[in-house]
Amino acid sequence: MPKDTGIGAATVRREDVRFLTGTGEYTDDITLAKQTYAVFARSTVAHGTIKSIDTSAAEVMPGVLAVFTGEDFAEVGGNPAGWLINSRDGEPMKEPKRPVLAHGKVRHVGDAYAAVIAETVQQARDAVEAIEADIEEFDAIVDMNAALSGSNYVHDEIGTNQCFDWGWIEDNREATDNAIKNAHHVTTLELVNNRLVPNAMEPRASIGSYKASTGEYTLHTTSQNPHLTRLLISAFVLGIPENMLTVIAPDVGGGFGSKIYHYGEEALVLAAAKRLNRPVKWTADRTESFLTDAHGRDHVTKIELALDKDGKFLAFRTDTKANVGAYLSNFSTATPTFLHGTLMAGNYTVPLVYVNVKAVFTNTAPVDAYRGAGRPEATYSIERVIDKAARELGMDPIELRRKNFVKPDQYPFASAAGLEYDAGNYDALMDKMEEVADVAGFAARRAESEKNGKLRGFGVNAYIEACGIAPSNLVGVLGSRVGLYDAATVRVNATGNLSVMVGAHSHGQGHETAFPQVVAEMLGIDPAVIDIVHGDTSKIPFGMGTYGSRSLAVCGSAVVRATEKIINKAKKIAGHMLEASEHDITLADGVFSVSGTDKSVTFGEVALKAYIPHEYPLEDIEPGLEETAFYDPANFTYPSGAYACEVEVDPETGKVTVERMTAVDDFGNVINPMIVTGQVQGGLAQGIGQALLENTSYDENGQLLSASYMDYTMPRADDLPMFAVDHSQGTPCTHNPLGVKGCGEAGAIGSPPTVVNAVIDALQSGGKDVTHIDMPVSPARVWEAMQ
Amino acid sequence: MYNFDVEKPGTVADAVAAMRTEDAQALGGGQTLIPTLKQRLASPSTLVSLKGVAEMQGITRDGDSLRIGGATTHATVAADGNYAALSALASHIGDPAVRNRGTIGGSLANNDPAACYPAAALASGATIVTTSREIAADDYFQGMFDTALEEGEIITAVNFPIPQAANYQKFVQPASRFALVGVFVAKYADGVRVAVTGASNEGVFRWTEAEAALSANFAASALEGLSVSADNMIADLHGSATYRAHLVKVMTGRAVAAAS
Predict the structure, then answer these.
(1) Considering CB atoms only, which of A653, A714, A780 is closest to B240?
(2) Rounded to an integer, what distance in angstroms lies between the CA atom of residue A390 and that of residue B142?
(3) Positive or negative CA dihedral for A284, A290, A291, A295?
(4) Are A459 and A754 in contact (CB under 8 A)?
């Protein structure tokens, strides 16, 4: 019998009432008194020197209040990379400055070189058209190989387009080379992990405001992590003291990673607000989103898998070029390295892994973490090459994976790529997948498809990922410049209701519903009396925000710790009220009782006593009932899964349709199964989008060809089948108090190789000698591969 | 968007008068024009909305001829039962919002090389009725976004002869869901007409070899041995010229097989 409330209940999302009735409050919905508007002048060429910018005509246009250029920010700091990567030779990565506005050069189409502030958006737009910029265009650097071999540089001052040349694990390099040289069989695959545009439903938007009387700034912005944004602006870019800057991320309409980062527009509206002493709003249009939101993926990889004669994996060796675009975005150096290379052992007992990643600057939009962030790239490479190996060896792809799985009795398991997996059961996931996906019935379904002139393919995938990012001590050693804990404050009000201030930010994840379920379960009270407060640095203690599927595992654990403190203090108060030792007090169903007696007080009575401390032991217990906890986990959490996909291919047109999609995931304990299912479904949609539809294409001049929905294909409902989602096979995480793992990215990690494996299976069943097609596996690409 | 005036004439005569304003632009359902204006890619002085012109609305049948007013929406055509293949075509243009605003006159006046209606008009041998004359479809389409319309001339109606059998097959460009290749096949007593949209750099065109073969034998097998040249086919990130040429034949075969 499913529960109605608390942990494990499929509680309906309370935040959906406002989202579905159009009453959410997003940044662009906010209008401050005397608000003005910013519009940016953006480069139409990918690479050029700014010879001059004449703003004189723009400055005298109607309604124009100010015009800024890169010159105005020449003295302020750059927007930094959050992770220092050292090259194989020990040299630190190249870190060219990322300015608020382009100064000296423009480096990608959409790079902002000026901004107009005016009374209305239309006036600002008109004035932007009156800015005369003399930009001398250079050849664009688009192709990564050309970038590494040429002498034309995105950043002239560093004299190279290579940001770093990273090896992992460098000490294993020689042994891996030898294992591959001497192996019974080596399977090699060259592949592209296609660049993706994040396409959050809500475009980025920011409002800067300034209070001259106190010197306080406020930034309303579309952020997944308001404290991190405050830290970056304060410590690196504008130097505003943290206690003089409030960052508020109200309702945010999706991020998928792209709203983790601090962008120059946020600094511009703050600086402009101070100069004008009026609020300044900027809202991106969809074209700006395409051109300037940090993109995802964009790896070009060669992977080799060495096997012995029985199909045991001996080594994975990977050679990857990772496009970082024109500037380093905040997590851009971590994504292709420690979020990618460390996962290159997959779910397998393979003894040797070596990964080489060269990060490359190009005249394209910056590339950073996008739903999955490095782990989809790792999973795709591993699971595609395993599938190819199975075909080459004539082995069943499921059996080949099972033969190499880490087994349940091997935990904790030290992977060859440097992580310690704490819990899992990959065979159980595969068993469940075979049942849910009805693998046994596939042959009959294939025969039916063939009767209709279609080729049917079955694809399988096993993934592991590392999320709940993660132990500050570990990431510090690996180069992170920030800690990755989180924080929560539980405030019990005098009348017994609660406000819980959390560092995680909800922009679609359902925190306002799930976090109260945890607190309610612990206190034995109705979750309806618990309210979640997030997204405002003036209201919440601190927080590193939401990304990397970390909200519940990290911030949720902080909520647990703070609630435990509440219970401990409440027991003291109850003990006083009941004239018993706090050690004899038990809490059940919201009632504190003295063990072995019928004496009790309710949670509400204790709360009231805390705030009206008459007859209260003030010498032993402080009044009030409010506790804060910071939680820093001991390890990542390691969700894993077994996925299956069935596709039909129309051999005449190359069109692929996804007929069945099964996702069996191990998320450990599940707080709200409905929200988890929704997260998986969203991830699957994005993964299928990457596999079949989404094509970010720059031409040789650095122009984005797919810069609108006329050419960039987002997955739509009729592109997708009904999904079969199962998370019954959870193995609890061993190191966080809830035993939870992250579920936000799994679908996007597990599905792309599953889909492509199925397409290849379909084509091979039709007698086509096709071993690989790069994503997106469009009809044209399938048809051409078949010719 | 730049500023502009809006005129809402109630009659064709008033619409013609309004179009005499310098840089005036006729506005059908606005499904192409409004996004263009929002991008600041056009700056007409005046938009002349044709929505309120009653005589340009609706569908009437006269024997085997169907007259569709120029301001008739795709949704109205989709719901009409007189020319099934044409209604089916209209029911797959864009999404419900587009179909409830977009008009047949607007689509034909714009002549997007990947739009659906040009294929229907050309394959049906339709007549484009304007404020000043009647134009045969064979003379009307003059290349990508190019038509026989003169400055200020408005499509008031389109006359379709209803065929014995017809079908439209659209292979969609996955992002826009316009036609990557769309083929309209229509069989009349005096022969078969085949019009192709989406494929050519010159816009909608007739595949005359297929017409001859199908006029002799209206069966998909009649296309065996025929092929379309890839010369001058569109090549873009959604497909090569060769792929499009291949799809023309596949979609023609499917249209013939499905024609009713």
Answers:
(1) A780
(2) 55
(3) positive
(4) yes
Residue numbers in A near B174 (CB within 8 A): 693, 713, 778-779
B237 touches chain A (CB under 8 A): yes
A536, A245 in Cβ contact below 8 A?
A: no
Give just the sign of the alpha carbon dihedral A325, A330, A333, A335: negative
What's the pLDDT score for residue A420? 96
A711 touches chain B (CB under 8 A): yes
Nearest to A783 among B40, B175, B243 (CB): B243
Taking chain B, what is the end-to-end CA distance rounded to the nearest angstrom? 45
Q: What is the pLDDT of residues A286-345, one digit of tens each?
A: 999 999 999 999 999 999 999 999 999 999 999 999 999 999 999 999 999 999 999 999
Are B174 and A697 a contacting pair at CB < 8 A?
no
Q: Looking at residue B21, what is its pLDDT?
A: 95
Q: Is A700 on the interface with B (CB under 8 A)?
A: no
Bridge partners (DSSP) of residue A751 are none
Per this entry, what is the length of chain A? 787
Q: What is the pTM of this model?
A: 0.97
Q: At what angle do helices A375-393 and A746-765 cross, to 10 degrees?
A: 30
Q: How confident is the model at residue A1 (pLDDT cuts 50, 70, 90)?
A: low
Q: Band of the pLDDT at A478, cuts 50, 70, 90?
A: confident
Nearest CA in chain B to A776: B238
Which residues of chain B does A710 touch, with a Cβ-Cβ cutoff of 8 Å?
A: 175-176
Q: Give all domains of chain B, ordered by start, each with its CATH number.
A: 5-49 (3.30.43.10), 60-161 (3.30.465.10), 165-258 (3.30.390.50)
Q: What is the DSSP letter of A251?
A: B
Taking CA–CA distances from B3, the nearest residue in chain A reads: A122
Interface of A with B in 634-653 (CB under 8 A): 652-653
Answer for the pair B77, B104: CB distance below 8 angstroms, yes or no.
yes
Q: Give me the interface pTM, i.e. the ipTM.
A: 0.96
Domains and CATH numbers, chain A: 18-138+201-254+259-292 (3.90.1170.50), 299-470+635-786 (3.30.365.10), 485-631 (3.30.365.10)
Tokens of B232: 């001058």
